[in-house]
Known about the structure:
With 191 residues, the protein is an alpha+beta fold. The chain contains three helices and six strands; from the N terminus they run αααββββββ. The chain has helices spanning 3-82, 85-103, 111-133, and strands at residues 136-139, 151-157, 167-172, 174-177, 180-183, 185-190. It has a three-stranded antiparallel β-sheet with strand order 1-4-5. β4 and β5 (180-183) form a beta hairpin. The longest helix has 80 residues, at 3-82. Its main location: cytoplasm.
Amino acid sequence: MSEQAQNLNENEELVEEVQQETTATEDPLKEAIARVQELEEQLKAQVEETSKKEQDLLLRTRAEIDNMRRRSEQDIEKAHKFALEKFSKDILNTIDNLERALATPANKEDENIKALFDGVELTLKELLSTVSRFGVEPVGSVGDTFNPDLHQAISMQPAEGFATNQITTVLQKGYTLNGRVIRPAMVMVAA
């Protein structure tokens, strides 16, 4: 072989080696680029997932704050509405005593006693009017239908002129404060 052919052969071998080295160098480079792209996609997915979680957490937190605000407003409203409950229960004894005083048999013909009864009656009316303005209402009248939420049945007896479960006698009036029972009426019910 001639020297020229030998040089050509060597050159071809060198080109082949360079190509192999370039290919060998390109393969790790391509792999590295592919790996970086893969990592970039994973990071984007993680960022997106974290963003969704953060958004969800933000929405849940806002909802919880709204719920807490609503609950506290309801609690304050109930506190205002039922603040008088204990006082109302205590004043009911006074109302009962005034009603008992008016129910006693006495000689109402005597002017002194009549004036006393009139004064007690006016006091009772004014007291009932005052508690009514603050939401205290009496419940339980003769002839009403028995309601276990509002009335406490002491006994059941057959009674003429009354249907079953109708109140025949009110032993003690019941009262509600803004719709909430503060004392059930003690009643007798027709059987």
